[in-house]
Design a protein that fits this description.
The protein is an all-alpha fold. Helices cover 74% and strands 0% of the residues.
Length: 89
């Protein structure tokens, strides 16, 4: 499986509500790995989703990510999280 396939695999599972996949996708975005570009907004969104789905590690990751983000980036990410939740992702 190449990097792009890995990201797609986690995205598919994350969109189905898999908290572990959401955490893994968040880590990929935070580090720019697995075929995705480094993006703290998406990293925070997926970590936040995982935390909301019961993953304790993800809650710690959201706290860590906040140290690397502006207030505007955090707010943008929270809006994305709410959109995902309203779409039942």
């Amino acid at each position: 499986m190449n990097n792009t396939n890995i990201a797609q695999h986690y995205l598919t599972a994350a969109e189905q509500g898999d908290a572990r996949a959401q955490l893994n996708l968040s880590i990929m975005y935070a580090n720019g790995q697995g075929g995705v570009k480094k993006d703290y907004i998406f990293a925070y969104k997926w970590a936040n989703m995982a935390a909301m789905n019961g993953n304790e590690e993800a809650g710690m990751l959201t706290e860590l990510l906040m140290h690397y983000m502006t207030r505007q980036e955090i707010e943008s990410s929270r809006k994305l999280t709410l959109q995902c939740r309203s779409n039942k992702l």
